[in-house]
Amino acid sequence: MKFNVVVVGSTGLVGQRLVSMLSKHQWFNLIGITASKDKANKKYKDVVKWSLENKMPENVEEMIVYDTNIENINNLKPDIVFTSLPTDISKDFDIQLVKQGYVVISHASNNRMDKDVPLLNPEVNADHINVLKLQANRWKGRLIKVPNCATSILTLALKPIYDNFGLRHVFVSTMQALSGAGINGVSSMAILDNIIPYIEHEEEKIENESLKILGELSNESIKPNESFYVSASVHRVNVLEGHLESVFLKTDNDVSVEEIKKSLIEFKENKIKNLNLPTKPSQPIIVRNEIDRPQPRLDRNEGNGMSIVVGRIRKDNRNWIKFNVLGHNTIRGAAGNGVLIGELVAKNYNDIIQ
Amino acid sequence: MKFNVVVVGSTGLVGQRLVSMLSKHQWFNLIGITASKDKANKKYKDVVKWSLENKMPENVEEMIVYDTNIENINNLKPDIVFTSLPTDISKDFDIQLVKQGYVVISHASNNRMDKDVPLLNPEVNADHINVLKLQANRWKGRLIKVPNCATSILTLALKPIYDNFGLRHVFVSTMQALSGAGINGVSSMAILDNIIPYIEHEEEKIENESLKILGELSNESIKPNESFYVSASVHRVNVLEGHLESVFLKTDNDVSVEEIKKSLIEFKENKIKNLNLPTKPSQPIIVRNEIDRPQPRLDRNEGNGMSIVVGRIRKDNRNWIKFNVLGHNTIRGAAGNGVLIGELVAKNYNDIIQ
Amino acid sequence: MKFNVVVVGSTGLVGQRLVSMLSKHQWFNLIGITASKDKANKKYKDVVKWSLENKMPENVEEMIVYDTNIENINNLKPDIVFTSLPTDISKDFDIQLVKQGYVVISHASNNRMDKDVPLLNPEVNADHINVLKLQANRWKGRLIKVPNCATSILTLALKPIYDNFGLRHVFVSTMQALSGAGINGVSSMAILDNIIPYIEHEEEKIENESLKILGELSNESIKPNESFYVSASVHRVNVLEGHLESVFLKTDNDVSVEEIKKSLIEFKENKIKNLNLPTKPSQPIIVRNEIDRPQPRLDRNEGNGMSIVVGRIRKDNRNWIKFNVLGHNTIRGAAGNGVLIGELVAKNYNDIIQ
Amino acid sequence: MKFNVVVVGSTGLVGQRLVSMLSKHQWFNLIGITASKDKANKKYKDVVKWSLENKMPENVEEMIVYDTNIENINNLKPDIVFTSLPTDISKDFDIQLVKQGYVVISHASNNRMDKDVPLLNPEVNADHINVLKLQANRWKGRLIKVPNCATSILTLALKPIYDNFGLRHVFVSTMQALSGAGINGVSSMAILDNIIPYIEHEEEKIENESLKILGELSNESIKPNESFYVSASVHRVNVLEGHLESVFLKTDNDVSVEEIKKSLIEFKENKIKNLNLPTKPSQPIIVRNEIDRPQPRLDRNEGNGMSIVVGRIRKDNRNWIKFNVLGHNTIRGAAGNGVLIGELVAKNYNDIIQ
């Protein structure tokens, strides 16, 4: 018995990855894909500017794209809706969907900080899914948010360190790939032989979402972590895929580099929720010991893009820990995480929609 | 009355910039240029792989390159020798030169941390030149060191902040240009669609040299600054010229963003030594207010490559200051600073060699 | 006595270069600049995304941008109008302007092949300006077209070869810079680690415009050259500025490589019209003898971007001539040529408007 | 019964691909790998700078690298030796090996034009293998050459056109990837924002080898094709993998674009030798009909890098055919072709060594 799913906003970069992963998924039937009006009622292959390294799955080439509107979703009656829309559109459409009673896994940034909305990075905080029952006060359906890309990568690296050694300060300077801005997001003239030290709202997202993801679930809501804080500085670089982050952090107690490594390597998943899910990588955090890794082009596809890679773990002379963490931003940082969340939702479907 | 100068190691990237700047300098006569044996006794234009954006000066095209050895320098009898050699060669040759009595301005990293060797970034610490007299205990000549490229750029930004508000912590994550590794330093296959999170010895240089440059001159020697510390994480990116640095810092006392900006804009030069020097930029620190600047390709040539550009000055919610600083790494960070130091030396020549 | 000029479409890449060159021109007063409605009535510095390597001229920073409409031009009453508009808008607006009686130098591709419209590359065919009198049959003003960028570069190289040795076949494979597509013309994700073997309508432009530029002026009109033909294959590459073209050609009679070189080096200007014009480069064609030149980044700024650079001139074993030619596409290939044409027009102004 | 094979020169880019493909090959046992003396007697994983997109095969990580000398090969006694050495070394070592009696498949350019040495691109000229018997006059072993990368890609596209419509002229302008020059072959500073219009000896290779590959086998030797000729112009571009070639050609008789397409799509293999070989792609030539393909990053991996992709097939107004052809230069153009040749050799082993 597979779950019927729809991808709303199927032609952008994240939409393409969702379509690619869901079109042949062991737990899901992809029963519909939508896009903006100008692309509606045409074959997917004729309206999408396919930009992934793997080919378009044959079974979606001929699928007819629906216009993104509530009537079309109502006709399809999916069990789960994955939305990947521009924030301004997503804001309204996500809410329409949950009011109609759908279970929605949304990639846009609106509502991410709502106390009754789980912001999931499953290995880190799958248990936050339990907050969904609070949404019964607001609407019939359920809204789950996929975090910001750089944040998903960062928090997966922080989780075992926080659990084992505590955290006080985290400074992170990111070098983010072009794909994070979408297919036409960055002009080639803007970035050739250059770096752009700015991405709109990105720093606030990293700073705030990290604390929520590493926050605690109480009966009332998700309480953002208050024991530490994150300060971010973000940069767009001329790399196709893979966000590289340079992290400086202070743990509660002094800890050796070897202890940090061990905690990262041994980390497997959220302690509360069992994550026997198809898209979960066998090794969520890969630690490399070479002096010059991780590197985006060489390491971004680890674990089919679902593993993060940590390297250059070292201490400075005031006992701050420094390292680099790399993750595939449109897989681990977006669509792959969305699908993993979808699997978590599927496994707990009856609990969620009760 | 011009000073006679020689460039030792004239065919690398820094050597080329030295030759370019010194070949038509109002205070200097370029009387000789040297390179390794295989290039010696040939015309400069026939052995150099010219890599600068401006053309090779006509008056050096036909200059005959000397083999880098002490006899050739002795025949030339320069007043000042600029050396730009690989560290392992520089280590011996610089010392040979100063033992023979020459005034040497050296770009290699050896001896930079010697207590009686000034490591100069003139606007920041021109007064450190006074330590040269201590070298009379070691040799007849004088050795002056040009700092690491990323460090020169960083310390120029830190100086007014340190002077006005005090400093406790500095975290810096760098994105460094290809030219920093020399003409053939980074393979194109290594860096296309990629970042390399490692540059040998670079982090130690930034961490240690910064404290020396911002250190104090006492009768005995230069005392590294002990009031703050620097922790660095370095990365090589696919940019031709211009090191971009992401800085997080804590001042002694809380300070507003506007006060920081004011201190940077108003900063002109070292308080003790007058710097009426031809290569000194009229505005050493340029502050930009746009949300997305500085950018390497757009801002690296400010002040003919001698100004640094600071932007995105902001505070996080624990009152740490964050900003980006950019500088032209082979001009401000290397040859341009070398020439500026040469001018400082020329102006104080009699004091220095007494 | 300077000529009053207006730049219509002043915020694109070509518009920026026009503004940059005309704002401090010895023969021209820049009395107005226009842009689309959303940018009108604001300061130029606040609406333009400045993308040139040199700074915005101070005297245009504060200029108020006019909306592009005929009333505004009528209020300004310029002697010459430079237009740099998208083709679909240019088509109508250029004609409106000439009907009103203005002398228009237009960069868009419409009307370029009209028999009474000179398509000028001044060193090659300045004499074609004489065809302008035929326009008196159509309108009060005069329309002059700037050729396609790749074509201007190619025809300048072909002219001395055609004049001296005759031409039968020209095959040209281009590698064209990003700037040719405008500031946002090529997405970074599309071109990183890639080549796009297509530019809309470009091959037809090169093939047709070349024959017109090298055509003959008769009493009736400009007759395209019929003695040879051009076949083009175009490619977009990840280079900021500078179109590199690989040319294979057959002359009427066999000719040596040295004779070709001599003809290129000695070429100065159109035989009929004297070109004592400020923007004309002293050496329109520079020949390089190194085995690996011209290269875009190293050679595109020759003659302030107005010279083309030819290299690797050789023959294959059937006596076809092969070479590479490089030119700065937004200067020699667009705005620089536009200004040069403007100067030619100014010098012959009374003849033209009679 | 598998054939024992050795890879001589196993650490360069082509060597890495050979090792990758041969380490788990259904017909071959990889019994030894060699490299230069400084890498000998160490584990492969410790001396190779692994540069492929797929991981190093586990079964070679721990293999001990042999020094490249004849004694080591004699101890290993392989059935087939694949050599991938610098030309100057390969020249001597290949000959040593064949004199000792080995069957050698060599990637270097020496001896490629020898009349009794087959230069194989199996789908095109597998029957040329029959010339090997002539080598009995020279040595005990057999020498087979892998063609130049750009030539393998070009001749595969030319073969069906030549067979069906005849050929008179071929002009080809190449845009070649960085990997063609090896791991450290092109400096990043040389190629960023640039094109290098030169690759040593490449044009002669394309021009001469193409005629040999499309030549005829007679009793005496391979006779280069004399009915047409090739004229090449080569360029290095900032692309990781995948040579793109722009071709202008004249067939014997006029032919339609559709006929050309049909001949390319229907082409499967050499008419004389059956090629039921594991590495042969099911579709050697893929034709794309989009206006802007092939593109290196999107199309280079077709057929696991063994298919070439042809697009933009069109005619100019003198009935010349124009198209772009793309191939993966280190797979189809080098190691993949080497392995395919190895399979052809294995299938005909007894005939060859008789």
UniProtKB/TrEMBL annotation, chains A, B, C, D:
Family: Belongs to the aspartate-semialdehyde dehydrogenase family.
Name of the molecule in the record: Aspartate-semialdehyde dehydrogenase
Signal peptide: none
Record carries keyword Oxidoreductase: yes
GO MF annotations in UniProt: aspartate-semialdehyde dehydrogenase activity; NAD binding; NADP binding; protein dimerization activity
Pfam family, one: Semialdhyde_dhC
Active site (record annotation): C149 (acyl-thioester intermediate), H243 (proton acceptor)
GO biological process, one term: methionine biosynthetic process
Alphabetized SUPFAM superfamilies for the sequence: Glyceraldehyde-3-phosphate dehydrogenase-like, C-terminal domain, NAD(P)-binding Rossmann-fold domains
Domain Semialdehyde dehydrogenase NAD-binding stretches: 4-132
Keyword Flavoprotein: no
Keyword terms, alphabetized: Amino-acid biosynthesis, Diaminopimelate biosynthesis, Lysine biosynthesis, Methionine biosynthesis, NADP, Oxidoreductase, Threonine biosynthesis
